[in-house]
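=== RUN LOG ===
request id: a7f3
mode: sequence -> structure
chains: 1
length: 170
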Amino acid sequence: MKKVLIVVDMQKDFIDGALGTKEAVAIVPNVKTKIEEYRKNGDLIIFTKDTHQKDYLSTSEGKKLPVEHCIEGSEGWEISRELEVKDSKVICKPNFGWLGWNQLGIDFENMDIEIVGLCTDICVISNALILKTQYPDIEITVDSSCCAGVTPQTHEAALSAMKMCQINVI
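=== RESULT ===
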């Protein structure tokens, strides 16, 4: 069975920029190894990029999280230089979860999906649940060693919530 790796928001601002954490920095080597493994096996790799505009602080999200981050075209918006994007598909998403998975022309129903990235408790869980809702019979796995949350506690809470929704957590 074909596999797809979804690398969520491994961008500078979430790793060591405006909203970076030591936990996010620590997972970069694990994510890099995971990407190399998928690429070596000829599997599909999709990157997402949290993408905001210059008016971010006036948006609903910006009012609740008043820290400018991942502004399109900025250094913080870029995927970590340590991770090779190469010819992978890149999706720019304007908020936590992306609703367009079923519009990509990818046969997700005949694939196993693995999700890694940042932040476990916001964008990783949002996209995992959207995919599980759109494709309830597929296997979705989240590799906890390749994810980090806003805090270690909320990372663990998100992993528990995903397990309850029949998402495999390793």
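=== NOTES ===
The mean pLDDT is 97.
The chain has five helices and six strands.
=== END ===
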